Amino acid sequence: MDYQAVLEEVAEFARPLIGRGQVADYIPALAEVDTGQFGIAVADVDGQVYGVGDWERPFSVQSISKAFSLALVLAEGGDRIWERVGTEPSGNPFNSLVQLEYEHGIPRNPFINAGALVVTDRLQTLTGDASTTMLEFLRAESGNPDVSFDAAVARSESEHGDRNAALAHFMASYGNLDNPVPTVLEHYFWQCSVEMSCRDLALASGFLARHGLRADGTRLLPRREAKQINAVMLTCGTYDAAGDFAYRVGLPGKSGVGGGIVAVIPGRCTLCVWSPGLDARGNSVAGVAALDHFTTLTGWSVF
């Protein structure tokens, strides 16, 4: 596969869509991001990486971080996390309070905000420092020691995080958080504030394409648990548009409102695309189209 040629064709296909959509202006630190940017990278299972456009420019990973926190929780604490969070699509916006009341403080899946807060709480219990644990993992897997938090984004999210605080307090009232709510929120906001490029994210998520093996060949997860993460990414990873994403793209994916999407082709490669303009459901307009075209050109999907 000539990855470089494929990515160049994908970028050309996505070009008319670059700039469409809106940035996540409810997070003030993201409100001024230029929607005219676009990058895409692919990393094969051997760690070779290719990219076009703004593929080496760091951006705010936001909810893409949830896939990594889930992996670390499974690696550190096994599958007990599934007693506290489900694996079903939510069908509701990622910050909805509605289902939590109906379902007694148990979030539908680990990729909506409530579920990610439970996962962060568990990672904090297991490690004593959830956000730093994730940062060190991302630096190691991407091979980039400069991956870091964006303090301005973390502060912005904290100052405008009333909905997330409400979710956390509601779950705490049902006994589904072990750590103090302010601690969980702090680590959650720091995790979402991590800045990485398409290159970094494609490499860092490679363990999902290698069935649980890290970049150095050591095992992070059993094959079964890597499969579980990919499965939940496919059904729940793109907010309440997961069904449409599975229909169009056919790959496990995790998006973030910073405009990035990571996608996995088990046994072959991982991709990351970034374009900040979002559709009404919080997914990158150009990014979804680019991944759709990639699978069309290559014929690769999980189906």
TrEMBL record:
GO function term, MF aspect, one: glutaminase activity
Keywords noted in UniProt: Acetylation, Hydrolase
Binding site for substrate: 63, 113, 157, 164, 188, 239, 257
InterPro entries with a match to the protein in the record: Beta-lactam/transpept-like, Glutaminase
Superkingdom: Bacteria
GO BP terms: glutamate biosynthetic process; L-glutamine catabolic process
Catalytic activity: L-glutamine + H2O = L-glutamate + NH4(+)
EC numbers: 3.5.1.2
Gene3D superfamilies xrefs: DD-peptidase/beta-lactamase superfamily (3.40.710.10)
A Pfam family that the UniProt record links to this protein: Glutaminase
PANTHER family the UniProt entry points to: GLUTAMINASE
Similarity annotation: Belongs to the glutaminase family.
Assembly notes: Homotetramer.
Protein name, UniProt field: Glutaminase
Organism for this UniProt entry: Streptomyces luteoverticillatus (Streptoverticillium luteoverticillatus)
Taxonomic lineage: Bacteria, Bacillati, Actinomycetota, Actinomycetes, Kitasatosporales
